[in-house]
């Protein structure tokens, strides 16, 4: 199976945009979807907000591959589903992305996509279309439950619809 990482990475960056440091965003200083704290964890030392502002897509691509794509085993997921899980991992963390996928396929929602989850995904009677729909619907319900929804909800819902549409387009491209 060919990896969709490059395509999915470009799609995620459409939503992550440039530098922001919104006071109501618990992520704080963020550029290209990479928070200051996450970048410090990745590079192993403290960084400044200027360091975050200077990030480029080429610089953050290995970060995305290691911290989100590989952690969620997206290469083992059906096309389209891989993108939805990846986008959720970037936006809400790999653990939440894993739980949404696991709940959709009836696996134990432990927050880690391991061999058992992948086996259940491969054996599910649900189509990739069904999985995309179920996972995207759960994500929307999750967003609506957050106290920051009044501030960020409109953008999140727009992102969710874009991700759903792009994921469904990936089904027809297979």
Outline, from the CA principal axes?
Answer: globular
User: Cα distance, first to last residue?
Assistant: 11 Å
Distinct helical segment count: 9
User: What is the arithmetic mean of pLDDT?
Assistant: 94
CATH architecture: Up-down Bundle
Helix content: 55-70%
How does the major sheet shape up?
Answer: 2 strands, antiparallel
- Tell me the β content: under 5%
Category from helices, strands and their pairing: mainly alpha
As for the number of domains, it is: 1
Q: In sequence order, what are the helices and strands, one letter per element?
A: HEEHHHHHHHH
CATH T-level topology = Chitosanase, subunit A, domain 1
Radius of gyration: 16 Å
CATH class: Mainly Alpha
Strand order of the largest sheet: 1-2
Question: Uncertain spans, ≥5 residues at pLDDT below 50?
Answer: none
The total strand number stands at: 2
Report what the structure shows:
- A hairpin with a 2-residue loop joins strand 1 and strand 2.
- Helix 5 packs parallel to helix 8 and helix 6 packs across helix 8.
- The chain has a single domain, classed as Chitosanase, subunit A, domain 1 (Up-down Bundle).
- It contains 9 helices and 2 strands.
- Strands 1-2 form a two-stranded antiparallel ribbon.
- The radius of gyration is 16 Å and the shape is globular.
- The chain is mostly helical and 174 residues long.
- The model has no long low-confidence stretch (mean pLDDT 94).
